[in-house]
Write a structure and sequence with these properties.
Blueprint lengths: L7 H7 L9 H10 L1 E5 L4 E3 L7 E7 L1 E7 L5 E8 L3 E2 L1 H5 L7 E4 L3 E7 H10 L1 H27 L2 H7 L11 E2 L3 H8 L3 H13 L3 E4 L2 E4 L2 H9 L4
Antiparallel strand pairs: 1-8, 2-7, 3-6, 3-8, 4-5, 4-7, 9-11, 10-11
Length: 228
């Protein structure tokens, strides 16, 4: 029996290149067993220390992955927009989740349960190809975040968090200054100052709650130049 294509979760799965290559029986089983989880802006969707139930994707909304130190310091190290998967490292391990997942706006998550994740990992070559490419991209993001925190000025960090490194395939970002500040670990005032400077240089244009990248190459160069 084919999965119900009217469900948002099935529509999302049908956009995944690995899903379309599964046998119909496997497609139906995966589509039947995925489940969704919703939260309002500011709520915790997944908590550090909890058992990892599966691999997650953002159906709608925006989340940040956030860790806390024993001294109470909070660090947001990644933002995940709609259409993207996250938490593959946690799913591949058997340890509890090591970070909180916070909704930056009203959000719905899709979960591919661990049993189906493990089944696809064992039997589906297209799934493995997709997962390896995804892990490689996450590694690149992690290295960028480490470098930005150690070597880049605040204005460059804002530029990096607007770049293709984090927003693959998007030119216009519906992203508030508050959300961008959460992701870059900067105050709203610093983000505002950086965006105004980039707008004056013709790198971005700003509308209410929206940032448009006008010159992606120049934006990338600005984010990585030795000094600004």
């Amino acid at each position: 029996m084919l999965p119900d294509i009217s469900r948002p979760s099935t529509q999302f799965l049908n956009m995944q290149p690995w899903f379309r290559q599964l046998p119909e029986e496997t497609q139906a089983r995966v589509a039947d067993r995925v489940f969704t989880q919703a939260a309002s802006k500011g709520e915790v969707l997944l908590r550090a220390g909890e058992e990892v139930k599966g691999w997650y994707a953002v159906l709608s909304g925006l989340v940040k992955l956030q860790s806390s130190s024993s001294q109470g310091r909070v660090s947001a190290f990644l933002g995940v927009p709609d259409g993207e998967w996250f938490g593959e490292g946690s799913t591949l391990k058997t340890e509890p989740r090591r970070y909180d997942v916070i909704a930056l706006r009203d959000t719905v998550l899709l979960c591919l349960p661990r049993a189906q994740f493990d089944e696809l990992l064992a039997d589906c070559l297209p799934f493995n190809h997709f997962l390896v490419a995804h892990l490689n991209r996450r590694l690149g993001q992690a290295m960028t975040i480490i470098e930005a925190g150690r070597l880049r000025a605040p204005e460059q960090r804002v530029a990096l968090y607007l770049s293709r490194v984090f927003w693959q395939g998007r030119r216009k970002l519906v992203l508030s200054q508050e959300e961008l500040g959460h992701l870059a670990g900067l105050s709203r005032q610093t983000v505002n100052r950086a965006l105004k400077s980039m707008e004056q240089q013709g790198l971005v244009s700003l509308e209410f709650g929206r940032v448009t990248m006008l010159d992606e190459r120049a934006l990338a160069a600005y984010a990585t130049q030795p000094e600004i």
